[in-house]
């Protein structure tokens, strides 16, 4: 996988016969007390390697557009104006900057139901953001989120109860723990495998080195840890890459084993 272009809010990668475009939706600031040890308690001390902005952790929020030139899938949609406005909701600017027409988006794959991943289906001024939308793939355990603001999308929701191919090169893989329907999307090209995840990792400067550290809002912290362990081990295989919603934008990297944990190597420098 190699970077071929970038801008303020996007980065485009060549991935064999596919292109992967990282789209920056913005950022959220969260207190370090959200981090949890194996007993479910806040960490006593934050390692010096973890940067703070003021007294907070700054989490990037990313989405990913994958295309073979004919078909495409948008993985996550950002927050629109539903949460932490105005630091998020930039995905529409990112799509414009990358030259991606929203009318090209017929399939959206949602990693899980939380606002910073699903709310961008509805534009800030109220209409659907993707006028030609045909299908929204989401873990069956999270499909109930399509009420209220998201009600207009409900008739196009495809619940994912088990591992299923959503096109020739993308497979939805249930990874419950953070939420009941948390799902990773496995994208395979002629040259490798990309795992696009939502909230498997929130703080990349900590949770690769110490993967047993959980997040306060993991619905089932033990299950989330177990899912993370499986995915991290898979990512150490040759020609495997990760695209993470909360990795530093653009959020695409390699993972290698390192001591008792893992090391992360970004394929492009941070943007934004």
Automatic annotation (TrEMBL):
For molecular function, the Gene Ontology terms on record are:
hydrolase activity; metal ion binding
Q: Does the keyword Metal-binding apply?
A: yes
Listed A to Z, the keywords are: Hydrolase, Metal-binding, Zinc
Q: Which domain of life is it from?
A: Bacteria
- Domain spans labelled Metallo-beta-lactamase: 60-246
Give the organism, scientific name: Actinomadura syzygii
- PANTHER family found in the cross-reference section: QUORUM-QUENCHING LACTONASE YTNP-RELATED, QUORUM-QUENCHING LACTONASE YTNP-RELATED-RELATED
Q: What SUPFAM superfamilies does this protein map onto?
A: Metallo-hydrolase/oxidoreductase
Please identify the protein, giving its name as recorded: MBL fold metallo-hydrolase
The keyword Kinase is assigned to this record: no
What Pfam families has UniProt attached to this entry? Lactamase_B (PF00753)
Family, as annotated: Belongs to the metallo-beta-lactamase superfamily.
